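quick one if you have a minute, typing this from the bus. below you get a single protein, a line of residues and a line of whole numbers that encode the local backbone shape. could you go over both lines and see whether the tokens make sense for that sequence. anything you notice is useful, everything is just below.
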Amino acid sequence: MKFRLAEFKDIDEIMDIITKAQNYMHSEGIPQWTNGYPNSDTIKEDINNGYSYLLEQNQKIYVTGSVNFEGEETYDNIYEGEWLTHDKYAVIHRIAIDMDYKSSGMSTEFLKEVETLSKKKNIYSIKIDTHRKNKSMQKFLKKNGFKYCGIIYIKDGSERFAYEKTLEK
């Protein structure tokens, strides 16, 4: 498996994975990733900013996600709880696995790569959020050592459950 930054040539394959994930969430009644979000413009912006990462093997992409180390404005205020740490952190957004490989362990491998990348940057916290109805993501996060911290509100005012994982130094 290879963990790398995405390139513009990867956009179609990334969007195929995201579309499958959107369809899955819709079929499960999860009102997340709706109204054309995320779209190819979102992914292009992630690539331009150096945030878009992939996990691939034999030139097939299995997992995609946005990872940045610049903070997240919507995480400045958390309700009904608190963050575990208040130091620098990595943020993961738009993580998705090719649904044909759900439960394969590849998403966990993606998280491990993000942890390694974070430690290389002397960052020992990873934060992420998800919709309250996205039970499969919540289960995945808990399985991978993330702790529920409270509620945040994204830019459109929608509520999200906020999670954080601290990494050993």
